[in-house]
Design a protein that fits this description.
Elements: H1 2-78, E1 81-93, H2 97-101, E2 121-136, E3 139-148, E4 153-162, E5 169-177, H3 198-204, E6 210-219, E7 225-234, E8 248-260, E9 263-281, E10 287-310, E11 316-330, E12 333-347, E13 352-363, E14 372-384, E15 387-396, E16 400-401, E17 404-405, E18 408-420
Antiparallel strand pairs: 1-2, 1-18, 2-3, 3-4, 4-5, 5-6, 6-7, 7-8, 8-9, 9-10, 10-11, 11-12, 12-13, 13-14, 14-15, 15-18, 16-17
Length: 427
């Protein structure tokens, strides 16, 4: 009985100890579970924080990338279109360079300037750099720099034009070529022949009519193209006008275009007026530098007509004509000089073209010849849109050497290359 009692006490003690240990284990398990829950919560918080930071970083990177792209786009948009034009070739002339440079055109030019193809042999005539861009919703701007074969740089044109004037108006200001006549506004690489038309050269010089000034044009609301323009320039003695500060040259013109059947007809009337200017001479008869006398007014009248008739998708005939007359007051009389050119161009296809031209100065001052003329023929090859090779022959009877007229024969082989963003030439 006593053994049984002691056995019961021992079992109870063991069971009691096991229950205490079990309870302790349960408490420890509960504590561990609670710690696990807290750790999971902390992990979840850390993960959310990391995700938010990653999202913010991605957003920042996206925003930075967008800003950089916008900046690049803005910078690209602000960059002007740039074109480079190269012109040169080979010249064979029946007189030497010095003799040709000393030639005169009686009654018109006493000191002839030869800007292109000056010497026999190879000539690099120029590199022309043209830049243009939209400034804002209201203005465009352009600048053209001329680099001659000797490395001299000249600002040939630099101007702005309006984009948003009402009622068909457009304005321009800066340094630019006048829209007088048919070809004065065009640059050398856009000419139909390698040399300037005689009447343009003798009246306006190799640079053409233009300079520092302003222009306003108006396109009429008519069923056909009709444009009127007015320009003011500082006077320029190389163009036959006074260079005094108070002297300005005014230019006005009316131009129209109409389609007649298959043909396109362009016609224009032009007028320029400014103070006449004659260079003073010293006692020996030599010109006095920067010394001029005004003799009233110089008035220049012009008329032009161009007809293009298409023969096929890439072939056409173009007949272009221009006439000018200058009335210049000098002392007690008015000197009248006039001339014209007429040229016929045949575009065979997209690559080949040919043409002939006749220049004539038929009216001159008293005592000077009035039959100064030149005949020209050309053959042109354009392998691609922006490269051109041209062969031209001139039979020139407009020059005098030591006061003796002499026929000059010329053969010109020229290339013109256009690089970069270059717009189409006006027809």
């Amino acid at each position: 009985m006593a053994k049984l009692l002691w056995l019961s006490i021992a079992c109870a003690t063991v069971l009691s100890a096991n229950e205490s240990e079990l309870e302790l284990l349960k408490q420890q398990m509960s504590a561990l579970h609670e710690q696990m829950m807290q750790m999971q919560q902390k992990i979840a918080v850390l993960e959310n924080t990391a995700k938010m930071q990653a999202t913010n970083t991605s957003q920042d990177e996206t925003l930075t990338s967008m800003v950089q792209n916008d900046q690049k786009t803005a910078q690209t948009t602000m960059l002007p279109d740039i074109a480079v034009i190269l012109n040169g070739g080979y010249t064979s002339r029946s007189v030497s360079r010095d003799t040709y440079g000393a030639a005169t055109i009686p009654g018109f030019v006493n000191d002839m300037e030869v800007p292109f193809n000056a010497k026999n042999g190879f000539n690099f005539n120029y590199a022309e750099v043209a830049m243009s861009s939209t400034v804002d919703p209201f203005l465009d701007a352009s600048a053209i720099f001329h680099i001659d074969g000797s490395g001299g740089i000249e600002v040939e044109e630099a101007y702005f034009t309006t984009r948003a004037l009402d009622y068909g108006f457009k304005a321009k200001a800066g340094k630019f070529k006048s829209a007088f006549g048919r070809v004065n506004e065009k640059h050398h690489h856009a000419w139909n022949f390698e040399d300037q038309e005689l009447i343009n050269y003798v009246l306006f010089g190799p640079e053409g009519l233009g300079g520092e000034g302003g222009q306003i044009q108006w396109v009429a609301p008519t069923p056909f193209y009709l444009m009127a323009g007015f320009e003011l320039f500082d006077g320029n003695p190389e163009q036959g006008f006074s260079a005094k500060e108070s002297a300005t040259t005014g230019v006005g013109y009316l131009k129209m275009s109409q389609t007649l059947g298959k043909a396109t007809v362009l016609a224009g009337l032009s007028y320029a007026q400014g103070k006449s200017e004659v260079q003073n001479l010293d006692l020996s008869g030599e010109p006095i530098a920067n010394s001029y006398t005004d003799y009233g007014q110089t008035r220049i009248y012009g008329a032009d007509l161009t007809v293009e008739y298409p023969l096929g998708a890439f072939s056409s005939l173009i007949w272009q004509n221009e006439w000018m007359q200058r009335d210049q007051d000098a002392e007690a009389q008015t000197q009248k000089q006039a001339g014209f050119y007429s040229e016929l161009l045949y575009r065979m296809d997209g690559n080949w073209a040919s043409g002939i031209r006749y220049d004539d100065l038929y009216r001159n001052v008293a005592g000077a010849p009035d039959d100064l003329n030149r005949f020209s023929a050309k053959l042109e090859y354009k392998p691609f849109e922006f490269s051109r090779f041209r062969l031209q022959y001139n039979h020139d009877r407009s020059k005098a050497f030591d006061d003796e007229r002499k026929t000059v024969h010329e053969v010109l082989l020229n290339y013109t290359l256009e690089l970069g963003a270059h717009g189409a030439h006006a027809f």
